Amino acid sequence: MIVFFSYVFIALALSVDALVCSIVYGKCFSDARQKLKVAFIVSIFFGLFQLIMPLIGYFLAYTISGFIHYVDHWIAFGLLALVSLKMLYDTFKKDDENKEADQCKNFSVLAIFILAIATSIDAMSVGFSVGAVNNPIISLATVTGLICFILSFGGCMLGQVLNKITSISSYLNVFAALVLLSIGISVLIDHKAITF
């Protein structure tokens, strides 16, 4: 049961970027039919990539695990720490004020595809971390994909209402970064690389 809740927390942390992008797209369309279509497209792409990218990362780590066995926990920690630091950096950097307007103007399947890749790179790093320490990945990838799909769909459909959430997105990103960093520290503790 504890493992399932850790998967849910990881999935929530990895889905924050996709949720914020979905809210922005939800604000772009006021027609209910069009919004529903956009919500399906956005949530399918985001959910699918959040499912696939951890698997890719896992299999990359699995193929080289024989070479990295003695430092695998440090690699896992390093990747999770880097993803956390990147999330914190993105949270506190100054954003271009026209970013949301550009996202609305440039809506296309190609744009969603690129965003889906961009928002799931951290999921690939988490998958690599999981593979480096030889833990199972299918359940984590599935939970992450499903949660991202649900959050993205909801974010798109409620974009106008949830617009206020983008003002607290920095708090969500900080939370997500701390969750991933704590997972990295727990990997080091599990492998007795650090002790208290």
How is this structure best described in words?
This protein is an all-alpha fold. It has one domain. Helix content is 83%, strand content 0%. The chain is built from eight helices and no strands. The protein has helices at residues 2-28, 32-68, 72-92, 99-105, 109-132, 138-157, 159-162, 169-190.
Biggest sheet: strands, sense, closure?
A: none
Would you list the SSEs in sequence order as H and E? Answer: HHHHHHHH
Helix content: over 70%
**Overall pLDDT metric:** 82
Structural class computed from helices and strand pairing: mainly alpha
Q: Estimate nothing, just give the exact number of structural domains.
A: 1
Tell me the fraction of residues in β-strands, as a range.
under 5%
Radius of gyration: 17 Å
Instruction: Characterize the overall form.
Output: elongated
Distance between the termini: 26 Å
Continuous helix count: 8
The number of distinct β-strands equals 0
- Contiguous low-pLDDT stretches (5 residues minimum) are none
Distinctive features:
196 residues; mainly alpha; 83% helix; elongated
